[in-house]
Amino acid sequence: MMKLLFCICIIHCLQISLQGENIKKHQDKEPYSFLVQLTEECDEKTYLEKINRFFQKAVQDEDTIKPCSFGKTKSIGKFRYFIAHCFRESDVGQLRNVDAGCVKRIEENGILDVDGKKCKTKTGKFNNTHCFPNKAHSWGLDRLDQNGSTKLDRKLHVNYFGRKVTGFIFDTGVDPKNQDFCDRFSKKLSVNAVVLGKSAWDKHGHGTHIAGLFGGYKYGVAKEADIVSVKVLTKTKKDGLANVLAGIEYVSSLNMKRKIGVMALRTPKSAILNEAVDAFVDKGGIMVVSGGSANLDACDFSPASSVKAITVGCTTQNDTICETSNYGPCINIFAPGWSSIGPDIGGGEAVYHGTSQAAAYVGGILATIWGEFPSTSGKFIIKKFYQLAEKGALSGLRSSETGSPNLMARVAPCTPH
After folding, report:
1. Could you say which residues form the signal peptide (predicted)?
2. Among 22, 36, 37, 95, which is least packed, fewest CB within 10 Å?
């Protein structure tokens, strides 16, 4: 009994020690891998020199077995961070103690997961006879041009298709051989942020589906937008938060205009991830993120709780919120996401449920608006997007969802040329 009480005390004391260093802990993590966010005032070179001197002395004094190692500092605008790999968790607190004025935040490299559930797969290849079908091949695509009515006409009425706009799909990769992308997939710009230099192709299916709803010819909204794979998740679906930060940093560094990111993934709330997303938007991009499919408050997840991202919830054919969709004030808008048909790896089709699919549609809508107003800023496009939204369309809101906005995403009305 005394041994049990002693162990409990030790565990409790360790938890208090970590909390005292203001280190954000995640339930799932990559062992001994931490993200360190620097303050804007920090002199990075001087700080790293102090850290290295501290750990060299600690090893000599046998206060630690092995010093922490540090990755290269990366930046997204004013947002700066690096990855620290430490032999012991107790060493991490020293990263702040060496110079508290340099460290804004430390978080463990939390685990990410795709958002959305795959339901079934249809075999077979796409057989596109033309590149601009008016036919809407799914109810969700059809719903995007309606206003105040769930009576669908199996068509998507839209004048602009996202020309000269680029969609960056932060996901499991994209299968470029799927005919739904009609040679608009950019292999040159695509990147594997999990293992640099490796292929950004999709071996899971989720990323290809998201890319298809964003900009596929058959199942997508922005049928002329370019598509870039930013692979931040592997076939196992679970990877560290650092991969996403690296992906954002890469896209942010590209000297391009009209960049739209679609991030259909989730992790417990991470201030570091949220600030990275916000920094991307500050640099002129647009980031659309899934609200999460856990039937919980979206404010408890990231990047759903990002202030400057467009966070999307999921709706059904009856204009009700999906039973799995997250909700609350961090949701900015809703879009179709239930029973969404789109492309799969290997050239087939797949059906998914979730806020991932809703976010992909919203990303496509934003691309069509930017295609119509190519010389304008991301802020203008976001404002225009919300002006087009259908108000009061959702019905049957549960009490837990009352903090959610009653807004449905909608494409710009089609007008004759």
Report:
1. 1-20
2. 22
Render pLDDT for 189-244 as a digit per residue (tens, 0 to 9).
999 998 888 899 999 999 999 999 999 999 999 999 999 999 999 865 557 899 99
Residue 167, pLDDT score: 98
Residue in 270, 306, 356, 404 annotated catalytic: 356
Within a domain: 5: no
- Same domain for 381 and 289: yes
Confidence of residue 364 (pLDDT cuts 50, 70, 90): very high
Q: Give the CA-trace dihedral at 128, 129, 131, 135, to 10 degrees.
A: -80
> Could you tell me if 106 and 128 lie in one domain?
no
Report how far residue 59's alpha carbon sits from residue 51's, in angstroms, rounded to the nearest whole number. 12
Q: Check residue 222 and give its pLDDT.
A: 95
H helix runs in 261-377, sequence order: 271-282, 355-372
Task: Quote the CA–CA distance of 380 and 385 in Å, as a whole number.
Answer: 9
Q: Is 395 a catalytic residue?
A: no
Domain range for 85 is: 22-110
> Into how many domains does the chain fold?
2
Kindly state whether residues 28 and 138 are assigned to the same domain. Answer: no
**What region does 183 belong to: left with phi over 0, alpha with psi -120 to 50, or beta?**
left
CB neighbourhood size of 239 (10 A)? 21
Instruction: Spot the catalytic one: 26, 137, 204, 206.
Output: 206
Q: 108 and 34 in contact (C-beta within 8 Å)?
A: yes
The one catalytic residue in 145, 171, 239, 344 is: 171
Residue of 241 and 154 predicted with greater confidence: 241
Q: Measured between alpha carbons, how far is 132 from 71 in angstroms, rounded to an integer?
A: 46
Do residues 337 and 356 touch, judged by C-beta distance below 8 A?
yes
* CA–CA dist 250, 76 (Å, integer): 9
Quick check: 334 and 344 in contact, CB under 8 A?
A: no
Rounded-to-integer distance, Cα 146 and Cα 133, Å:
18
206 is catalytic: yes
* 334 strand-pairing partners: 313, 408
85 is catalytic: no
For residue 9, the one-letter residue type is C
**Is residue 13 situated within a structural domain?**
no
pTM, two decimals, is 0.87
Mean pLDDT score, 76-104: 89
Provide the pLDDT for residue 128.
38
Within a domain: 357? yes
Confidence of residue 10 (pLDDT cuts 50, 70, 90): very low
Q: What radius of gyration do the chain's Cα atoms show?
A: 23
